Amino acid sequence: MKNHEWRLIDTGKSHWRIDAIKDFPSFLRAVPIISPPSGIIYFENGSPYEEIEAFFYANGIPGFVIPMGSVDPNPTYHIRIAAENLEALAQIAERHSEAKIAAHIHIYCGTHLVLQWYDAFRGPIVVSKVIPEEKLKRFCDQLSLHYHAVESV
């Protein structure tokens, strides 16, 4: 897979902002609601146990490069957003702390990030306005979360 010129979601422009998520397995199960077709979810800077690492190696997509969330973004994993992948990872997440899986999580489609979550589990989630509000509302309702639009500055 070729490297791409990635663009982060410009937080100086209009976007959606979601409160930090506390229930990671539920987040994983809800991701298909907001993911575009052919979406990829990216996990960075975890400290995976053998079970987590085995899952990522069995289901991962090698060769992608997106903007780093940290100076040393290791390890990094990319998996296709498919209900069976996310359900399997959610079951693993129920047995391990979130920090073992990732510190930064992004969702992208093609060469565009549609969701970026730096400092996952502590910070807010930024979602591109390419995701329709009705999908975002369903996602947030399922997770009992609040979201709001951030308009251009």
Task: Describe, in plain words, how this protein is organized in 3D.
With 153 residues, the protein is an alpha+beta fold. The chain has one domain. The protein has helices spanning 24-34, 50-59, 83-93, 98-101, 133-143, and strands at residues 15-18, 40-44, 76-80, 104-109, 112-117, 125-128, 147-150. Helix 1 packs antiparallel against helix 5. The longest helix has 11 residues, at 24-34. The chain is globular and about 45 Å long.
The biggest beta sheet is recorded as: 7 strands, antiparallel
Which structural category do the helix and sheet elements fall into? alpha+beta
The amount of helix comes to 25-40%
Number of discrete helical segments: 5
Shape: globular
- Let me know the average pLDDT: 85
Rg, rounded, reads 14 Å
Across the major sheet, the strand order is 3-2-4-5-6-1-7
Quote the distance from N terminus to C terminus.
Answer: 36 Å
Q: What's the count of strands?
A: 7
For the record, the count of structural domains works out to: 1
Question: What's the order of the H and E elements?
Answer: EHEHEHHEEEHE
- What are the segments in which pLDDT stays under 50 over at least 5 consecutive residues? 1-5
Strand content: 15-25%
